[in-house]
Design brief:
This protein has about 130 residues and is mainly beta. It has no helices and eleven strands.
Length: about 130
């Protein structure tokens, strides 16, 4: 049974840091690109970052470039999102998702039009940045 489980969310002040983890089970994570998404209250879910199956390719939206770092440890079947210099506008539920195409070489696209091509999603972890 394929599962993705996020953890690491919490409450943090502006300027603080959190590290999110996405643990996979039921499949070999190293064969798939993985994306991180977030959804703030009253807003659409948006892509944040993605990482290729090897970890060599990454993609970030402009809003998080220079502050967030996506990485993976395929031996542990985990993907991470290190979030630094957090801002109140980063407050959201964060989800990881598996790009459906096994073996794709690059980081997976995270634009809305590609979202249906992610086949498994985690349950999400809440990140709240408050002052």
């Amino acid at each position: 049974q394929v599962q993705l489980v996020e953890s690491g969310g919490g409450l943090v002040q502006p300027g603080g840091s959190l590290r999110l983890s996405c643990a996979a089970s039921g499949f070999t994570m190293g064969v798939y690109a993985i994306g991180w998404f977030r959804q703030a209250p009253g807003k659409e879910r948006e892509g944040v970052a993605s990482i290729s199956k090897s970890g060599l390719g990454t993609y970030y939206i402009d809003a998080v470039k220079g502050r967030f770092t996506i990485s993976r440890d395929n031996a542990k079947n985990e993907v991470y999102l290190q979030m630094n210099s957090l801002k109140p506008e980063d407050t959201a539920v964060y989800y990881c998702a598996r790009w459906a195409e096994a073996g794709a070489l690059g980081p997976s696209p995270v634009l809305k039009k590609y979202r249906a091509q992610y086949d498994y999603w985690g349950q999400g972890t809440q990140v709240t940045v408050f002052s």
